[in-house]
Design goal:
This protein is mainly α. It has one domain: Tetratricopeptide repeat domain (Serine Threonine Protein Phosphatase 5, Tetratricopeptide repeat), CATH 1.25.40.10. It is about 75% helix and about 0% strand. The chain contains 13 helices and no strands. The longest helix has 21 residues. About 40% of the residues are buried.
Length: about 250
Amino acid sequence: MAYRALLVASERIGQRDRLDPFIRRWYRFVASVYTSSELLRAASAHVQSGLDLFPEDADLHVARGIIVEVTVRKNLVPDWRRHTVYSEDNRARVEAALATATNDYMRALSIDGHNAEAHLHLGWVRFVLGDGRDKGEFAAAIADAADDTIRYLAHLFLGGLAERENRLADALQEYELARTAGPDFQTPLVALSRVEQTLGHDSRARELALAGLQLEKHAADDPWWDHRIGFDRESLYWLRDEVRRPR
């Protein structure tokens, strides 16, 4: 309600264009706080409030899709090296839920065809649904990415796909690209170590594992964990910088 009041006030004083981006981003960020805390009903209600004001905001449609993803992940922990990532007894429920997320990501892309985050999350959904179009979505996310966070995650997922298909050389390449995009994070090093171990390169696997331990202080900032729980760290930083920006 406070932001609806701010919106009305901004129209009265002729500042709507200046304040709109901040208000939109605030709705997105607060929704991610609810989502990452598994307060999913509150997250859904908050996103809907934002969409009532900004129905053509692609990022808010992405946020609504992410809520569904997190709902599914409460009962589903995908292993990228397996071909089946959920049991048959909950297959119909998972597919129905992720079809809803797909609709939101497709809606986001109809508004902004270069929305890298929508491509990234749509790729994850397509992987889980096994419809064969996941690789293309991750490639599109990389092509449209405006920052290394999206590239980092997309390369991790492409590495996971390659590892699942036993294309280990490709997996190593993708994980190395993820490491380049996120040199301070552990996840690529863990993945690289695992693949090297599978290839019988024990010394290299140990070297990578030790390198990961040295980066332990950065583990909490790894975008992989934000992705898993639905937290929007990028919006947090954007809002912080906007507040601090001289007027």
